[in-house]
Amino acid sequence: MSYLMIGAGQAGGAIVDSLFKYKYMNLIADPILINSTAKDLHNIKNISNRNNWYGISETHGLISGRTQGFEEKVVGGFGKNPVRSNDVLEMHYQSILDMFDERFKLKKPKPKKSNDPEYQNIENKETEKKADIPFAFLFLGLGGGTGCGIGSHIARALKEYTDNKVSIIAVGVLPAVRRNIVKSTNHNEDEASDRQAWNANYGIMRLKDFVDGFIIVDNQRIAFESNMESMYLSYNDYIATCIADLVSGLILERIDPGQYPELNPPVIDINDILTALSFDHKGRGREPGFASIGRASSITCDLLNYMIPLNKNKKIDTLMLARLAAKKQSISNINLNECGKNLALIRAPPHYLKKSDIRINTRGIEEFMVKNSRLNECHLGVSLTKRNLVSLTTLFTFEKEQIPRLNEIIHLAQSYEEKSKNLASIEA
Ligand SMILES: Nc1nc2c(ncn2[C@@H]2O[C@H](COP(=O)(O)OP(=O)(O)OP(=O)(O)O)[C@@H](O)[C@H]2O)c(=O)[nH]1
Ligand SMILES: [Mg+2]
Fold this sequence. Notes:
Number of helices: 15
Shape: globular
CATH class of the largest domain: Alpha Beta
Number of strands: 15
Number of domains: 2
Low-confidence stretches: none
Largest sheet: 11 strands, mixed
CATH superfamily of the largest domain: Tubulin/FtsZ, GTPase domain
Order of helices and strands: EHHEHEEHHHEHEEHEHEHHEEEHHEHEEH
Bound molecules: guanosine-5'-triphosphate, magnesium ion
CATH topology of the largest domain: Rossmann fold
Helix content: 25-40%
């Protein structure tokens, strides 16, 4: 197992569910779904094994999906109040460590019985060992109560459990601000989005000490729909495809790059992703950055070629692919020129990397990416695929202040806090 995919709350769980639509994900990752409403877990389609479910109970903290009476114990949710779920897991912090222990403590096979006292000494010592957890993704909605409130405790416990060895990437759904887009006569809806902004600020501030990087999934990108909820599934699928592309690399296609020594494509692995997602500050260690994610693809073989195999592959306009991936970024209203660094992963069939008239212009993509990086830092990787598809997945990483949407959220959070303080004092 190389990755841990944790989905906290409804939005977090739904994106992990989309990710496990790809069956190969089971080969490289272990899913954990945590929710305060058992009903949400029953709506999950691709992770039906209850061993991967955990509920939050006010009296016990995290409880396993196999617990008797799970459905009755895990009800209600936290109604968009992350402070409440935060308090529950703060009080039952040990239950998170117990969850990791239950899943990852390896039982060493006991040595064969022997009368030799030396042998028995060995048997009593260290019969249990922890599994390695090098990387984890933590998916959560930043506007709600559950994911947003428990996220920092989960991340902290995972760091503690692995003696700080694990690297954690938080994938957070940023709540949309809809008052200027969808004309609504419903004043409550505006109030709700101010509250969600406060939640998001609360969640990010607490998470940033325990994660190595953020990928932001901004719901503002789908906020133009009057029924935004109807877009969740396809938006989640899009994000899941981006993440799957980044983490699956060569494992997915089982292509041995050794078969194509002449190609020698630059490889990126999860460590490059981590470098691309964080900033070094002299003397201050590493600080998590905030990244936007996006992907574009183009089929290499059209319908006619499928029907009459002429072995003629389309030439791919790589610059257009790069521009399209840049347009399909997950954060609304960003200026790519202001990103600190970025990463691009190209996936292509091997014959698109060989010298020929259809060879893809990887240099052109690199130039586009470097041009859009203040630090001139682009991590470029190429991986091979058996599919008739060329795809480009990109990450653009910013410092927090460089993202207008995060500034807007902070501003709304502050005014919500002031407003509610006033309300409190008037009531008092
Ligand atoms: N992109 C996307 N956003 C979602 C989805 N489900 C909910 N959201 C957004 O996530 C925020 C609410 O977070 P949830 O994940 O529903 O909340 P929760 O963590 O379950 O917490 P509770 O308030 O206790 O229910 C809102 O901003 C929603 O717009 C989803 O499937 N996809
Ligand atoms: Mg919920």
